[in-house]
Specification:
Elements: H1 9-58, H2 77-84, E1 89-90, E2 93-94, E3 101-108, H3 112-120, H4 122-130, E4 135-142, H5 147-160, H6 165-174, H7 186-193, H8 201-209, H9 211-226, E5 234-239, E6 245-247, H10 255-265
Parallel strand pairs: 3-4
Antiparallel strand pairs: 1-2, 2-4, 3-5, 5-6
Helix pairs in contact: 2-6, 3-6, 5-6, 5-8, 5-9
InterPro entries: Thioredoxin-like_fold, Thioredoxin-like_sf
Domain Thioredoxin-like fold: 90-239
Family: Belongs to the thioredoxin family. DsbA subfamily.
Length: 267
């Protein structure tokens, strides 16, 4: 005779009910986990999108790049053309040869901080000090970030051979792409240079790819080495014809440069 206790029908029902409840609880927990993962994925996607937009904006544009105005071949060409109209240029130099103060800028065409100075600092300097004949500016093209830096430095040198280096600088900075992304291809260079009225684009590219580009890059690096310059943008400033000294800045809005120009010029 069996000595095992008998299980009543009520107990059997209770056991089955407990099994169903446990299964339902497990299913609900699994569903909740899926919902949390989906919500987390959505949050991460939004965060990634925000970061992408922030990076694009901090680089000087939107996700779609700089916006062209009606009638422009390349973004920024109208303001750039107006900015340098009537100001003498000769090779790397912008401004009157006899201006009492000289500023030398070292920049890499891929450097986002150099683009920031071109956008926030240079325009006021050009309008107030350069156009007034108080300041002359020399540009020294560094090319250490990558291949796109070399390509753009050469294109700028080629434009400089035609007296339009500063227009090329500004347009390349306004339309600057992501570092070392390969954005500075032949189409980009040609399109950007085509936004400079009167520039022979084919000749500028050919000159830049030749000795003019090589000499400009080598001379810039030699001067940088002589003055202990290893980052961009960097600046030398002093009285024209005299010793130039490195100028340390805490802002790229141009105000500290203007103060130094006025001090040196005695204005």
């Amino acid at each position: 005779m069996s000595t095992e206790p008998k299980v009543t029908r009520a107990e059997q029902k209770a056991a089955r009910r407990a099994e169903r409840d446990a299964a339902a609880a497990a299913a609900e927990a699994a569903a909740a986990r899926k919902r949390r993962l989906a919500q987390l994925g959505g949050v991460l996607a939004v965060a990634a999108a925000i970061v992408a937009v922030f990076i694009a904006i901090s680089a000087g544009g939107t996700e779609d790049g700089p916006t062209k105005k009606a009638g422009e071949t390349v973004a920024g060409q109208t303001e750039v053309t107006q900015r340098f109209a009537g100001i003498p240029q000769a090779g790397i130099v912008l401004g009157q040869a006899d201006a009492p103060v000289t500023l030398v800028e070292f920049a890499d065409m891929q450097c986002p901080f150099c683009a920031e100075f071109a956008r926030d600092g240079l325009p006021t300097l050009v309008e107030r000090e350069v156009r007034a004949g108080t300041l002359r500016v020399e540009f020294r093209s560094m090319a250490f970030i990558g291949d796109d830096s070399q390509t753009l430095a050469r294109a700028v040198a080629g434009a400089g051979a035609q007296g339009k280096l500063w227009q090329a600088l500004d347009l390349f900075f306004i339309n600057q792409g992501r570092e070392n992304s390969g954005y500075a291809d032949d189409a980009f260079v040609r399109t950007t240079l085509s936004g400079i009225p009167g520039l022979d684009v084919d000749k500028a590219i050919a000159d830049g790819e030749g000795s003019a580009g090589t000499e400009a890059i080598n001379q810039a690096q030699q001067l940088a080495d002589q003055n202990g310059i290893s980052s961009t943008p960097s600046f030398l400033i002093g009285k024209t014809g005299g010793k130039l000294e490195k100028l340390e800045l805490s802002s790229l809005d141009g105000s500290q440069i203007r103060d130094k120009v006025q001090e040196l010029a005695g204005t």
